[in-house]
Design brief:
This protein is about 65% helix and about 0% strand. By secondary structure, the protein is mainly α. Helix 10 runs antiparallel to helix 11. The protein is built from 13 helices and no strands. It folds into 2 domains: about 150 residues; about 70 residues, no CATH class. The chain starts with a helix and ends with a helix.
Length: about 230
C-alpha cells in the first residue's frame, strides 16, 4: 500500500492488512472498542458493556488482567446472551480485549466486520442493496476511526519536545480523559484548545494541527493526543 492509497482507501481490509505487526495491542483494542461504541445502543446486556469498559481501562493500566478475564467470563457464562444481544453485536463485543499483537489485530478486524453487520441489521433496510449500503456507511465511519487512531503511517508523528509544556500536557490529558459517553468520542472543543496551545508554543505541523481541528470522529487512541502524551 502506498501513502496515496492509504489516504484515499474506502476499503477496510487493505488498511488493516498494511497495519499488521505495526501497532500495539493498546491501539488495536481501542479501535475495537470504538467500533463497539458505535453500536452501543445495540449492546443491551450490562455484561457486554462491562467487557468493553474494563478493556478500555486495562489498556491504560487501570484494570488488571484478572479483571479483564473476569469480565470476559461473566459475558461468556450467560447462556442466553448471544440471542439477546444478536449474533453480530455479540461477536463485536467478544472481539474486545485480546492481548498479543496478532490476536489483537485479528480481533480488531472481527470487531469491525461484526459491528458493521450489526449496524446494517439494525437499520431496518432489508433489500440486499439497501443492506449493503447501510453496512458500507458504517465501514466508512470505521475508516475514519482507523485513521484517527493510526494516523498516516507514512508520515513521522513525533512531536518536538519543546512543544510538550505543562499546559499542553494538561490539555492533552483532559482531552483524553473527559470524553463523551457513551459514544466515547473526544470533545472537539478540547481538541481545538489543544491545537491552539500547541500552535502557541511553536508547533507549525499542519497535519497535526489540522487533525485536532478536524471534524473527526476522534476517540481514545487519537494519534495526535497519543503522540503528545507518549502513548504507544
Amino acid at each position: 500500500m502506498t501513502e496515496a492509497e492509504w489516504l484515499a482507501s474506502t476499503k477496510m481490509n487493505p488498511m488493516l492488512d498494511y497495519l499488521e505487526g505495526k501497532a500495539s495491542d493498546r491501539k488495536w483494542t481501542l479501535f475495537s472498542c470504538a467500533c463497539v461504541r458505535r453500536i452501543w445502543h445495540l449492546v443491551s446486556d450490562r455484561r457486554c458493556r462491562r467487557r468493553v469498559e474494563v478493556a478500555e481501562r486495562f489498556v491504560d493500566g487501570l484494570a488488571s488482567a484478572e479483571q479483564l478475564n473476569r469480565a470476559a467470563e461473566a459475558m461468556d457464562e450467560a447462556d442466553d446472551l448471544e440471542d439477546n444481544a444478536g449474533n453480530h453485536t455479540f461477536g463485536a463485543v467478544e472481539s474486545v480485549g485480546y492481548t498479543g499483537t496478532l490476536a489483537a489485530w485479528k480481533a480488531a478486524s472481527k470487531a469491525s466486520d461484526s459491528a458493521s453487520f450489526a449496524a446494517a441489521n439494525a437499520s431496518g433496510k432489508w433489500s440486499a442493496k439497501a443492506w449493503r449500503e447501510a453496512e458500507a456507511t458504517e465501514h466508512l465511519v470505521q475508516l475514519a476511526l482507523l485513521r484517527d487512531i493510526f494516523g498516516n503511517p507514512f508520515q513521522p508523528r513525533t512531536p518536538d519536545p519543546s512543544w510538550l509544556t505543562p499546559d499542553v500536557l494538561k490539555l492533552a490529558n483532559a482531552a483524553y480523559e473527559k470524553r463523551r459517553l457513551p459514544s466515547g468520542n473526544l470533545d472537539p472543543a478540547r481538541l481545538s484548545v489543544l491545537a491552539d496551545a500547541l500552535e502557541d508554543v511553536g508547533c507549525s505541523n499542519t497535519n497535526l494541527l489540522g487533525h485536532l481541528r478536524g471534524t473527526g470522529p476522534h476517540v481514545r487512541g487519537c494519534w495526535v493526543v497519543d503522540a503528545v502524551l507518549n502513548n504507544e
